[in-house]
Design a protein that fits this description.
This protein has 345 residues and is α/β, with parallel strands linked by helices. The protein has two domains: 27-111 and 211-341, 3-Layer(aba) Sandwich (D-Maltodextrin-Binding Protein, domain 2), CATH 3.40.190; 115-208, D-Maltodextrin-Binding Protein, domain 2, CATH 3.40.190.10. The protein has 15 helices and ten strands. It is globular.
């Protein structure tokens, strides 16, 4: 009888354990909606983390949502429609001018990837004096890149060269072809087309290695406070995706072709995919810190339109790298590198 009671007690304890453990296990998988505002190699790591099941391995059920335009993505973030966003440039801290509402928690592409091309008769920066450069609009990355390039040649965008707000990249390239402007900023893979058409490359911003937050993970201040562990898992998943992209070129090319809806069997499509992959893969960071140099570059850009940004202290900018630091202290990034050395993906 005692043995029977002991067996019943054991079974009750066992089933209670299983019953109580189930909800705890279920909580390990967190649903998150993550938005991105641009399609191309600079957001490929996000696409890959979803496609290869890396998010799921890190306990994240991610829904990836494309929202064209960084301003719309910020609105979706602040309204709670999405929990995280992949953004770059001024948009990552633009909402924080009056009070800190958004926080950059990781930076995965921290270099400017963009080239300045001139009209066929313009072969050097000094020849742009008295000419026009086509940009998207004032305050954008293309505006900043144009001003940075002109500064290299001691040219002023206010008196020596006119910056003309034209619109997106396709519109700017068309304006350059028609002679409406004499230079414009172009990103891969359109850079390949510009080279083939014989437009002179005046400045390669990628080779300049200018620190710049081109692709970062941004969340609301409230979400960071309430969900640090899921966010750390998101960062880990995205870092692992970048690791895979760096270690396996063919996986990167196939995924990028799928993302851009290109066919690798066509040589012109493969060339475009390889141009994008080559340009961005070197700019992707294995340990996704937003370095102080990148912050300074961003503030310099913001201050061009609003001098008030220059006087803000770092804690007013909404940049918090403590989750990346925790992952580094845990040895996570070191383990990824060790796997590469052993030939393990």
């Amino acid at each position: 009888m005692k043995k029977k009671r002991a067996l019943i007690g054991f079974l009750i304890a066992f089933f209670l354990f299983v019953f109580l453990s189930a909800p705890l296990h279920a909580q390990k998988s967190q649903k998150l909606r993550i938005t991105y505002a641009s399609i191309g190699a600079q957001t490929l790591y996000l696409w890959l983390a979803q496609k290869e099941g890396i998010f799921r391995r890190h306990g994240i059920e991610a829904e990836i949502v494309y929202v064209p335009g960084s301003s719309a993505a910020v609105v979706a973030l602040l309204s709670g429609d999405v929990q995280a966003a992949i953004l770059g440039g001024p948009s990552i801290i633009g909402a924080n001018r009056k009070q800190v509402e958004t926080v950059v928690v990781a930076s995965f592409v921290s270099r400017l990837v963009m080239n300045l091309y001139g009209a066929k008769e313009i072969t050097s920066l000094p020849q742009l004096k008295g000419k026009k450069i086509g940009i998207t609009r004032f305050g954008t990355t293309s505006d900043f890149a144009a001003r940075y390039a002109l500064k290299k040649a001691n040219l002023s965008p206010d008196t020596d060269v006119a910056l003309i707000q034209i619109g997106d990249q396709a519109t700017r390239v068309a304006a350059l072809r028609k002679g409406v402007v004499q230079a414009t900023l172009v990103q891969p893979p359109v850079t390949l087309l510009m080279d083939r058409e014989g437009f002179p490359k005046l400045v390669d911003m990628t080779e300049e290695k200018l620190a710049y937050p081109l692709s970062t993970l941004v969340v609301s201040q409230a979400f960071l406070r309430k969900n640090p562990e899921p966010l750390k898992n998101v960062i880990a998943a995205l870092a692992e995706a970048i690791h895979l992209l760096k270690e396996n070129k063919e996986t990167g090319l196939r995924s990028l072709a799928e993302m851009m809806r290109l066919d690798l069997r066509r040589q012109d499509h493969r060339d475009a995919v390889e141009e994008s992959y080559r340009a961005y893969i070197d700019a992707m960071d294995r340990i996704p810190y937003l370095a102080q140099e990148g912050v300074k570059t961003l503030i310099q850009q913001m201050s061009m339109q609003d001098p008030g940004w220059a006087g803000l202290s770092p804690d007013r900018l909404g940049i918090d790298m403590h989750l990346v630091q925790e992952l580094e202290r845990s040895g996570f990034f070191r383990k990824l590198s060790a796997q590469s050395e052993k030939g393990v993906r």
